[in-house]
Each structure stands twice: as structure tokens, then as C-alpha cells.
Amino acid sequence: MTDEARPIPSASSTPSAPTAPAIPRRAWQALIVLLAGMFIALLDTTIVNVALPSIRTSIDASEATLSWIISGYALAFGLALIPAGRIGDRIGHKWVFFTGVALFTVASLACGLSQNDLQLVVSRIVQGLAGGMFVPAVTAYIQLLFPFRSRGKAFAIMGAVIGVSSALGPIVGGLIIEAFGAENGWRLVFGVNLPIGIATLIAAAILLPGRRESDAVSTSINGPAASASPVKAGIDWLGLVLVSAGLVALLVPLIQGEDEGWPLWTFLSLGAGALLIVAFGAWEVAYAKRGRSPLVPPRLFRHASFTGGVILALVYFAAFTSIFFTISILWQAGLGHTALESGVVSIPFAIGSIVGSSQSGRLAQLLGRRVLVIGTAAVAVGLAWVWLVFLLTDPSDLTNWELIAPLLIAGLGNGLFIAPNAQFIVATVDRSEAGAASGVISAMQRVGSAVGIAVIGSVFFGTLVISGQTPDAVATGFGASATSAMAVSVGFAVLAFLLVFTLPRRTGAPGGH
């Protein structure tokens, strides 16, 4: 296949009444391929939750390993996003996407074949890095291949795929484990990615336009690109090393500390992590002053609202991604339910998320920031209701019926927040900074997921006390731990609600994007 340019003719020959440029069929084909990749990357953020108890018994995984399986994936995913986007800008997004999907598919196979804790955690981290490599190409291609007025439709489809893939994860995982058993089912949970990944690779090689072709299509429908920035291009590798080392130094003791009894090294690691994050900030400032392009441009944080929005992204994702980590372990390890029954618990949340996300764009235009206020309030109320159910119900009597209403409310709120939140955070900075701001927000969402699981896992297993071997004693121990963990999730959700008020009332505010 060649990458020869195929300009798209104008949709109108009447100069006095121009119409929007036609969207080439190739753009829709490319979008399908790109969203197939995004589907498996985001499916893997939730499908593994219901498999955690099976992994625990199958390979005798430690409690810390269960947290690493989720946190390691999310952290690696987030750290790869910004450099992958920069590399794609320089060499073209097609082959960065192809390489990322190929590595993700191989890493998925390695996860399924893992024989011990270490193999599985390493494979999950590689899988996360691969996901972070190819996901930036999705938004990049939407910017290149779709006219400005049509991007909203493309992004709405992308938002729907995000919602559906995340919602389907626990259900699909539960069905697989139910069909193939706990011993082999969790391995096949990772195997779902193989046929989709291989099909995506073939389609990407054929249908994704290369750099020259995508630039030509972009010029024909969007006009010539803006002149290049005087800032020197390049990847801020030292900045990436500093922030990666700092986040790992913070996460390792949060995940391993409880398992090992909080020895001295855990506190030293926390201190070193804080120092590395400070060093990263100082380096970014110095790097920018030298006229280079830092990983996280310090100028973004001159906007107080952007700083609040970044913290909001981190805190919100820490709250909502940890919910089903808690519920899956309680439902299976504590209450003795199957993986499928654990997946069924998430259905109200999934339905709410899909309904909420389908209406979020229209409501954001109508209500402005209030749609995020309503969304985060609903999540906080829903999680607080779940916490009350855990607190007031005897664990042995707990069923999914008590959680239908609160999880539906939380899901509706999640759908209202997830799709439009980035638009409002980006609206806090100047238009010229929108691209850099979007990359930082995406990375912080994934880092928030990693931090949330690390904290919730530490609280859950740190408070777990089982005073007997009877089913009632096990249920009581896990129920008390789930109550403590859910209380932390509620705290994150309430903080996210408060942080929403730092954002502009409308995305069309001065300086907004």
C-alpha cells in the first residue's frame, strides 16, 4: 500500500455559499479501525476486575499483586500517552498505532500464559505501555481527517465506545469465567484481545492513511496547518524519567506497604517520590526556559482553574475506577459468588453510564458546567448510598438488589461527567495550549486510576480481619473491609464534586477551546 495523497474535492462550487467540506469515506473507515484499538485498551481497564479473585486462587497471587494488576496497567498507560503523541506528530501516527496494537496483543497473550505473580504484573505493565502508545492516535486522526464542524460527531462516537467498552468489561469477564471455569477463564479474559488485536492490525495496515495522505486530506478539508511554533521540537526524556520514577516511588509503598507491614523502606520511598516530583517540576521550568518543549508545560499551571481541573481529573478517576475492584473482591472472595454474578452487579452502573454519556453532549451545551456538577453529585450520592448499604446490611444477607438503585445513580453521574469533563478543563487555558492541556489531562486520568487502586487496595487489605473459617465469618471480615474501602471512594467523589467549581461555567469562556 502506498501513502500517496488523494485530495478531496470541494463539496460546493458556489463561492458565495460554501458548505462544510465533505468527509471522505476513508475517514470513517479509519475511525472504525482506531476505535477497535481503543475498545480493547479500555475494555482491559475493567474486564480484569472480575478475574482478580480467580487469579488470586489460580496462581496464589498476593494481595499486592491484585493491586498491581490494575494500578500497573493504568500508570504505564498514563505515562506513555504524552511521549507517544509527540512521536506520532513527528513520524506519523499510523505506525505508532500499529506498533502499539501489536505490542498490546502480544502482551495480552503473555498475561494469559503467566505462571506467577511477577510474570503477570510485568506483562500487564507492558500491556499498559502499549495501550498508551496507540490511544493518542485516535484523537490525532480525528483532528486530521474530520472537518472542524464534524469532529463533534466523531468525538461523540468515541465517547460512546469509551462508555460501552468500560461498561461491558465486568459482564464479559464474568461470562468467560463462568463458561470456562476459574482456573482457565481468567486467562481467556486476556485472550479476548487476540482476535480483535489481529483484526485491528490487518485493518490498520490497509485502511489507516500514512502521514502524507492524512496531511493532504487534512489540508483539503481543514485548510493549511498553522505555522510551526518557534519552540524546539523533541521529547523531554529526562522529564519522563523523573515523573515516572517519582510516581513509581509513591505507588510501590502504597501497594506493597500493607502486605509487608510498612517497613522503613516504604516511608523512605514515599519521601523519595515526593522529592522526584519536585525535581520534575523544577526541570520542566528550566527546560521550558531553554526554549524546548517540556513534557508538561509549566505555563499551563499559570491558570489556577487548570490546576484545579487537573486535580479533579486525578481525584475523580481515583474514585470511580476503584468501585468495582472493591465490589468484585467482596462478591467473590467474601460472599462466595461467581464471577458472572459479580459482573451482573455492575449492570446498573453500565446502563447508567451509557444513558448518561448519550445525553451529556446535549446537556453540556444547555447547562454548561452544571452538567459536571450534577454528574459528580450523582456519583457522590450513589457511592455514599453503596457505603450505607455495606454499613447497615449484614454481609451474609447482601444481594445485588440492594445496589441496583445506588449504582444506577452513580452510573448516570459517571456518564454525564466522563464525556464532557476534558472540554471544560481545556477551556481554562488559551486556545494555543489546548493540545498540550489535553495530553496532560489524559495522563492524569490514568495516573488517578493507578493511585485510586493503590490507596483502595491498601485500605481494603489493611483492614481485612477474618475471625474464623465459617462462611459468615469470612463474609463479615470482607464486608467490614469493603465498607472502609468504599468510604475512601466516597471521599474521593466528594472532593471531585467540590473541585468542579474551579472550572469555567461554559466552554466558550474567554481563552476557552
Automatic annotation (TrEMBL):
The keyword Phosphoprotein does not apply. Keywords: Membrane, Transmembrane, Transmembrane helix. It comes from the Bacteria. The chain crosses the membrane at residues 31-52, 64-83, 95-115, 121-142, 154-176, 188-208, 237-256, 262-283, 304-331, 343-364, 371-392, 404-426, 447-466, 478-503. Residues 1-20 are annotated as: Disordered. Residues 30-508 form the Major facilitator superfamily (MFS) profile domain. It holds the Pfam family MFS_1. Residues 7-20 have a biased composition (Low complexity). PROSITE patterns: MFS. It is a multi-pass membrane protein. InterPro entries: MFS, MFS_dom, MFS_trans_sf. It is found in: Cell membrane. The keyword Transmembrane applies. This is MFS transporter. It comes from Herbiconiux aconitum.
